[in-house]
Design a protein that fits this description.
The chain is an alpha+beta fold and 486 residues long. It has three domains: 185 residues; 81 residues, Helix Hairpins, CATH 1.10.287.130; 144 residues, Histidine kinase-like ATPase, C-terminal domain (Heat Shock Protein 90), CATH 3.30.565.10. Helix content is 47%, strand content 17%. The strands form three sheets. Strands 2-1-6-5-4-3 form a six-stranded antiparallel beta sheet. Helix 5 packs across helix 6. The longest helix is centred in the first third of the chain and has 53 residues. It is rod-shaped and about 155 Å long. 26% of the residues are buried.
């Protein structure tokens, strides 16, 4: 079952079914217990009426029993013998004995305390019923009564009854037990009617729950289907400028639509940036390749006119541009930098010492106390420092300064020059790829506008930042901040 609506409807129906079945069983049990208790109360009333007559000394054959058809009565003595039964009682079960014919009685109970066969006064102390003491002469047990379900056949009709057992002691000292029953037909009929109504109504109610859940889920998921159709259309058309519809609600679906549109916006920007990157890279590669080809063709036709140093310079420029493009591709692919611990001051000294052909030799200011360790890729960080030095060398008039210091839990490297500086409105733009200011183009035709972009990307990958501001000398001040190594 792949439909969310179908699964939701089935789940809701199953939960409701379990809840209704549990509630129905609880209702039936409570109803049955209540009606059974009422029947037991009726049976106890009849049993106590008969027990009261026996305690008063009424003979067995003169006992008055009301509603004999609805309340069968059986009286037994201490030995379980039946001494009296209600009229038309033909069979009984559940009272301890199924006999319904009274045993031959030598004489009825008499108020004078004499009865043949009962000349023992120990009846007052006879427990006769599970260890409970018997009531006193002429008394009815007021505290203890037993209830049990059974059956009885009265005047040829067999039915279920709730029997109450009450003990009484005659004035002659004989302890008797009166078993009186109350019919359970009303209880059974009521429980059966409720059960039938529940069984008949349960399927209808479950169908209603399933239908309502299906409709509500369909309405709730309608925006999701709209989002799906629009995403399918975007995939088919490859038009990333389109957006999915956002519902006016403030629920999870609305947040999903907004997140989807944000993702499409980021994807569109990424694709557009990639397209510009490819176009700019193609443009930048075209110039050195065309120059190199021209020089080689001239050299092939006129060897004496071959500009070998120019061809080598174009080849070096082409190689550097290819290396920059490769590094940017690796950064865009999410390549994680290494975690080597290195001294940033020593790395600056090493980079400056290798720049023997610079027009303006940089001045290095590194504290001798050390403690300038950072964690990252040695090659990428050296590339950042080299790019910053190249940029300062390109714009400086007379001086380039490099300083390293500890600052706010990290290490800061500042590269300053005394050139014209960077206008405030261009300070973020110069970190974009293939962006070169006009003066940079005239000063150095070999620059491709990738150095600062690479430097900022590498700084961000190392958890740092690269910013530009004004130098005290009047030029530009580029500051690289990296977190100190643990």
């Amino acid at each position: 079952m792949t439909s969310v609506r179908a699964r939701a409807a089935l789940g809701a129906t199953a939960v409701v079914a379990l809840a209704l079945v549990g509630a129905g069983l609880a209702v039936l049990l409570v109803l049955r217990a209540n009606l059974t208790g009422q029947a037991g109360l009726q049976a106890e009333v009849v049993a106590r009426e008969v027990a009261g007559q026996l305690a008063f000394g009424v003979p067995y054959d003169r006992l008055e029993m009301r509603d004999e058809e609805d309340h069968p009565v059986q009286v037994t003595d201490e030995n379980g013998r039946v001494v009296a039964v209600s009229k038309d009682l033909e069979a009984i079960s559940g009272t301890g004995t199924d006999r319904v014919t009274p045993a031959p009685s030598t004489a009825p109970a008499s108020p004078d305390g004499s009865a043949p066969g009962s000349g023992d006064d120990d009846a007052d102390d006879d427990d006769g019923d599970g260890g409970r003491p018997a009531p006193g002469r002429g008394e009815v047990d007021s505290d203890d009564q037993d209830f049990v379900n059974g059956t009885a056949t009265v005047d040829g009709e067999r039915a279920d009854y709730r029997f109450a057992s009450v003990r009484a002691t005659t004035p002659a000292g004989t302890t008797l037990t009166v078993h009186a029953g109350a019919p359970l037909a009303a209880e059974q009929e009521a429980v059966g009617s409720v059960r039938t109504a529940m069984l008949a109504g349960l399927p209808v109610l479950l169908l209603v729950v399933a239908g309502v859940t299906w409709l509500v889920t369909r309405r709730a998921l309608r925006p999701v289907e709209g989002i799906r159709r629009e995403m399918a259309a975007i995939t088919a058309s490859e038009d990333l400028s389109r957006r999915v519809p956002e519902p006016g609600s403030r629920d999870e679906i609305a947040r999903l639509a907004r997140t989807t549109n944000e993702t499409l916006t980021a994807l569109e920007a990424s694709v557009e940036r990639q397209r510009r990157f490819v176009a700019d890279a193609s443009h930048e590669l075209r110039s050195p390749i065309a120059s190199l080809r021209t020089q080689l063709e001239v050299g092939a036709a006129h060897p004496a006119l071959l500009d070998l140093p120019g061809a080598v310079a174009d080849t070096v420029r082409l190689q550097a541009l290819a290396a920059d493009l490769l590094l940017l591709a690796r950064l865009d692919a999410g390549e994680r930098p290494g975690r080597t611990t290195l001294d940033l001051g020593a790395l600056v000294h090493e980079e400056v010492s290798q720049r023997t052909g610079d027009r303006i030799p940089p001045t290095v200011r590194v504290p001798e106390s050390g403690g300038l360790e950072v964690s990252g890729s040695r090659g990428q960080l050296a590339r950042v420092i080299g790019n910053l030095l190249d940029n300062a060398e390109r714009h400086a008039e007379h001086a380039v300064t490099v300083s390293v210091r500890r600052e706010r839990g990290g290490i800061a490297v500042a590269v300053t020059d005394d050139g014209a500086g960077v206008p405030s409105d261009e300070r973020e733009r110069i970190f974009e790829r293939f962006v070169r200011l006009d003066d940079a183009r005239t000063r150095d035709e070999g620059g491709a506008g990738l150095g600062l972009a690479i430097a900022r990307d590498v700084a961000a990958r190392h958890g740092g930042r690269l910013t530009v501001g004004d130098a005290p000398e009047g030029g530009a001040r580029f500051e690289l901040w990296l977190p100190a190594a643990d």
